[in-house]
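Hi everyone,

Forwarding the result from last night's run.
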Amino acid sequence: MRSAPRVFAVSFARLLLTSLPIAAQTIAPAQPIVIDATSVGRVFDGVGAISGGGGNSRLLIDYPEPQRSQILDYLFKPNYGASMQVFKVEIGADMDSTDGAESSHMHTASDQNYNRGYEWWLMEQAKARNPNIKLAALAWGAPAWVGNGNYWSQDMIDYIVKWLQHAQSDHHLTIDYLGGRNEHGYNVQWYKDLKSALRANGLGSIQVIASDDWERNKLWNIASEMRKDPAVNDAIDIVGVHGPGWGGYPTPDALALGKPLWDSEGHFDEHPGYPEMARNINRNYVAGKVTATVFWPIISAMYDNLPYDDIGLIKSNQPWSGHYVVTPSVWVMAHTAQFTQPGWQYLDSASGFFSADTSGTHGSYVALRSPSRKDFSLIIETVQAKSPQTVHFTLASFPQRKLHLWTSDLTSSDPAQWFVKQPDIVATNGKFSLNLLPGRMVTVTTTTGQARGDAIPPPAAPFNLPYADTFKSYPPGRLAKYFSDMYGAFETAPCDGGRTGICLSQLVPREPIAWKRTDNRPFTILGNLDWTNYTVSTDILFQQPGSADLIGRLTGMSGADIPNSYVLRVADTGAWSLRRTSTEQDKRTRQSDLVLAAGTVSPLGVKHWHRLSLAFSGSQIIPQIDGRPVTIYGKPMNAVTDATYAKGMVGLGALNYSLVQFDNFQITPSNDISSTAHN
C-alpha cells in the first residue's frame, strides 16, 4: 500500500542568466513532469574544474597537513565535498596565463623535467581520492623554441606527446581528454596531425577537444569545419567551447555532429560565482545539450593582489596559517556530482524550464538515470525565481522506493544551510510534489551514500616577519616555498660561481609564445600585502650579461603584468636604478616605470655573487649593493622619499629573461632606517 504524497519546501540562490537561444522543454508548474527511465537523452560526461590558466593552485602544495589533505578531500573525495568528476590542468609554458606562470617540462629544446611545478602532484592527489576521475589537459602557450615561435607546429605536437607519455611513465596518470590551445583559435591541419601523432604513439584512446574558443562569433566555428571535412571530424572527438551560456548555445552544425558538446571552461564572470555555477550546470544541457561543464578556476590558492583571487571553489591563500574557506560552490557542484556519474543518461522528458519563459527566471531542472535504469537523480535550481512554485512529478519505469532529498539555501550566509539532507519523500502511485522557494538548489535521488564534509580550518593569521630561505633544503627543479612565478621559471638549481648547494634560478632564456601580452620582465612574488616597514635582501649572480630586480611593497598588477611596486634594478655592468612602477598617473603619461634615482657602481660582472637590499620605513627607501649605499657621481645616496606605496609584498625578477641566480633570501622588520643611509 502506498501512502499519500508528501510536499516539502525547497529553496534556491539568486542567479543571473544570459539569453538562451536554443528551444528547450518548458512546463507550467501545475503540469506534471514525467521522469521516465525509457526517455531519450544525451550521455552525461561530468562536472569539474580547472587547475591552470595561470597559477590559481600555486599555494596549495605549500599548505601544512592536515589542512592540505582536507582541502583536497573537499575537492576530489567522492561523497564528501564537490566530488569532481572531471579535472583539467594546464600544460605549462613558463608564461602568465592569468594569475601566474605554470612550469614547462621543457624550458629549452634540450631540457626535460617531468617533476616540475605542482600539476603532476595535484593530478596524483585527485586520482588517489577518486580513481574514476577523468583527467583533461590543455596548453595556454608554449616555450619560445617551439616551432621557432609558431604554436601550430609539429614541435608543439611533439611537446604535448612527451608530456602525455611522461604523465603515464613517471606519474602513472592516464590523460582522458586533450585540447589544442586555450582561446587562440585553431588550425585544422594541426588537429589532424595531432590525432595521427596520438595514434602513432599509443595514445589513441585520448579524446581530443576543440577548439576552446570564447568569442561569441567564433564559439562553434570548429563544428562547421568538422561537418565540411571528414578528416577534421575524425581528428576531434568533442566540441568544447568556453561559456556557451554567454557566447551562444550550439549551432545546428554542432548539434548535427552527434558528438559530445562541452562547456570546457565555465567562467565565473559574476561575483560571487556559485550562482553562475548553479545556473550553468543545469541550463547548459537544458538550453544547449551540453553534457559536461568544467569551471575555471578550481581553487583560489593565490595571492590577493592577483586577478580572480576569490572565485575558486575554495579560497586557500594562507599556507603559513593553514586557513582556508569552503565556498558554496563546493556544495553547488555536489548537488550534481554526488548524485550522478559520467556515463549516466539525461532524460529529456524531465529536463527543461519551469515556465514558457526560457530565460530561466523560474528555474530549471534535469533528470539523469544510471545505465541500469534502476537509479535516477533530479537536480533543480530556481536561482532567479521571484516567488514560490509548486511542481508535480510522475515516475515512470523506475522501481518504487524511497526518494532522498537534499537542499541548499544559497541565499543564506550560514554554511549550515548548504547541502542539507532532508526527510525522505514517499511517492504515492509514482507521484510526488515539491514546493520550490526562490534561491535554492534541490536534488531528489534514489541513490545513497552522500555526505557533507566537516573538516574545520584553523583561523586566519598574518604572515609574520622575519622570513628567510636559503634554498638549500630543496632538490633541483622545484618551486621555492611561497614564491609564485608571474613569468619565467624561478626554480631550484645547483649554485653557480663556485658556491655549493642549491640556489633559486630564473631558467627561461627567451620570452615564451604567450597567451596574453607581456612586458618582458619575468618575476616571482611572495608575502603579505600588509607588510609596511621592512628590509628585503638577496644574493644574486648573473649567469650571463643582464639585469636583475629586487621588488618591494608590491601591491597589485597593472597592464602587462607590471608589479605596482618599488624595484631596485641592477645590471652586470654596475648600472642601477630605483624605480616606481605602474601608478595610474604613470600609465596616463605612458610610463610604466618612473625612475626615482639611478647611478653606477663597480661592474658586478658574470659568475660573481653580490648582495642587494631594499629598506622601507614610512616614505623613506634605501637601496644597497654589497652592504653599501648605492652611489651617484661617486657619492653615497641618501634615502629616496616616495609615499606612493605604503605597504606590500616582495619579489625577485630578471629583466628580458636574464639567467640569474638568487640565494640567501631574507625579509626583516625595519622601522628607523635613516641611520643606515650613509653606513
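The radius of gyration is 27 Å.

Cheers,
N.
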